[in-house]
Specification:
Elements lengths: L1 H39 L3 H5 L12 H9 L2 H32 L5 H10 L9 H10 L6 H25 L3 H9 L4 H12 L1 H17 L2 H6 L7 H6 L2 E2 L2 E2 L1 H21 L1 H8 L6
Length: 280
């Protein structure tokens, strides 16, 4: 009994230590966001003060200036349409590709998957000129269509790999049984496969949405005003004369808020999907 009691005490001790370390890590990760939020309610003078001011009189001056200077809803709508469109288009392409790789592999499957993943290692600036010229030739510069397609293509390798790993964990016998019962290819995918992998598919879509929302390089280089998303709005508050930290913090908060809220409400689904199958 004494040995069992000692074991339980040791287990509680390590569990408490893990919880404390998890909270410490969470606070460390969240601290830049908290500091950005606090700074957004400071005046520019208070934002630059040293040492930093923890107690101050909050002001909405920065937010008022942002809404007076720019149409926030225009940029937010562009972000929603381009990130959302890229996610939908990416899923429509990634699901059939992952299905073929997982359930109908050939001797080239592994090579194709590795080649797709290797494209993520290519610096974006390396393909900027050809992508820009293609968009210019097609008359698609500063359009949501061009930005949405580019966001789809840069996230597609990750989406295919993630969905592929989820599909690989589904026994092929289940699909074989559906085919023997007379299910068509469409029924096999839509009515059997997708419901079984809905957790992984949801996490893949959420990750693609977050990556597309946060993408700034392509947003700044192939859009100017009409299709510019929130990343471009944040960049517009950087001035050659200097950085205005309070206003940058306010506009960054407005840009991050929608995706942070979405991530908060979907965190359980996102974590469950990312820890499902071979993706750890």
């Amino acid at each position: 009994p004494m040995r069992a009691s000692h074991h339980h005490a040791s287990t509680r001790h390590w569990r408490g230590l893990r919880i404390a370390l998890a909270w410490l890590l969470a606070l460390l990760v969240f601290s830049p966001i908290a500091w950005m939020l606090l700074t957004s309610f400071k005046t520019e003078l208070a934002a630059f003060s040293m040492p930093p001011q923890w107690l101050f009189r909050p002001t909405l001056e920065n937010y008022r200036e942002i809404f007076a200077r720019a149409n926030y809803l225009h940029y937010a709508l562009n972000s929603i349409l381009t990130a959302g469109g890229a996610t939908v288009l990416g899923m429509l392409l990634a699901v059939p590709a992952a299905y073929a790789f997982a359930f109908h592999p050939t001797r080239h499957t592994r090579g194709l998957l590795l080649w797709m993943l290797s494209t993520k290692m290519l610096p974006a600036v390396g393909v900027l000129v050809p992508v820009y010229l293609i968009c210019q030739h097609l008359g698609l510069l500063d359009t949501r269509t061009a930005l949405g397609v580019v966001l789809t293509l840069i996230n597609l390798p990750i989406m295919v790999w993630m969905i592929y790993t989820y599909f690989r964990d589904i026994p092929g016998d289940i699909l074989e049984a559906a085919r023997m019962d007379g299910a068509s290819l469409f029924d096999e995918i839509v009515r059997v496969l997708l419901p079984m992998a809905r957790g992984g598919l949801a996490s893949t879509a959420l990750l693609c949405l977050i990556l597309s929302w946060n993408e700034s390089f392509w947003s700044l280089n192939i859009t100017t005003s009409q299709a510019a998303p929130l990343a471009a709005l944040v960049a517009s508050f950087s001035s050659p004369e200097g950085l205005f930290w309070a206003k940058l913090s306010a506009v960054s908060t407005l840009a991050c808020a929608p995706i942070l809220i979405l991530g908060w409400f979907s965190q359980r689904q996102l974590v469950r999907g990312l820890t499902f199958g071979a993706v750890k």
